[in-house]
Amino acid sequence: MQSLYAFKGTESDNLAKDETFLLHSLDSMYDLYLSTLALLIELKNKGEDYNQKLRNKLTGSDSDKNPSTKFQDNQLLALISGNNMLKEIVNKRKLNFWDLDFEYVDIIFKEILKSDLYADYISEPETSFKADKKFILDIYSEIIAPNEKLYDYFEDKKLTWVDDFPVVNTVLLKVLRKLKLTSPETALLPDLYKDEDDKDFAKDLFKKTVLNNSKFSEEIAKKTTNWDSERLASIDGVLLKMALCEFQKFPSIPHKVTINEYLEIAKEYSTPKSSLFINGILDKIVKEYQSEERYPKVGRGLM
């Protein structure tokens, strides 16, 4: 969607450059995932540094001299920070920039310290991997992911990361939920693509949507005579063309799967009315195809 929305060429252009941009954008999303894990490591380090400074205060109270170490000793954070494969790939991709941009680590750490989640966590006598994991999942969902300054930082760092952040957050939470103390280091580093077919699908969807742009635009226009033309030039138009491409060029993908996917994307990235608009158009097109027996779907579970 990002690549098609940014595409300014024509159907006759050589798409190699734009395909490279697409693959680079997808690879960049993995960099954001790794950078976010690196942020969790820096927060653990910040906890250790914070406690050491409390102990070193000349006029510190008893609580300062004996601060809670639950955060710095959190077993999930320890598992992440001790992952050598993660550290190697972060260094190789030069994503260890939190040392230079430490103020964002400070901002988030302070938000964690003043939260009820933190207060409840350090007051709870139970120490277990399950409790430690729940705490990290909670502070990530409620404090880290929604942080506007972090969001702005990622936007300044790389423009495409703004749209990638919600996807990365979902994947990261899913990975962390499944993590166990006995999990191999690779469990924290899922592949960007499920397999080579997954990567090929991304390239094919982009190319076939571009190469059939005029055809798709004409077909959509016939179904949207009462709609504002600006809507069709926006993300809604891009999503409709991608959906038509799946309808016509990918016979193994069921209509319902295509429609549901683009409705979810519309809810996330377009206007409040977009999902209703897109659902109405696609439903009308599918019924027409089925009645005329055009572009039949093949495979199991597609009837």
Automatic annotation (TrEMBL):
Of which family is this protein a member? Answer: Belongs to the NusB family.
Q: Which residues form a coiled coil?
A: none
A Pfam family cross-referenced in the UniProt record is NusB
InterPro entries, A to Z? NusB-like_sf, NusB_fam, NusB_RsmB_TIM44
Keywords carried by this UniProt record? RNA-binding, Transcription, Transcription antitermination, Transcription regulation
Q: Where is the NusB/RsmB/TIM44 domain?
A: 194-287
What's the protein here called?
A: Transcription antitermination factor NusB
Instruction: Give the top-rank taxon of the lineage listed in the UniProt record for this protein.
Output: Bacteria
Organism placement in taxonomy:
Bacteria, Pseudomonadati, Bacteroidota, Flavobacteriia, Flavobacteriales
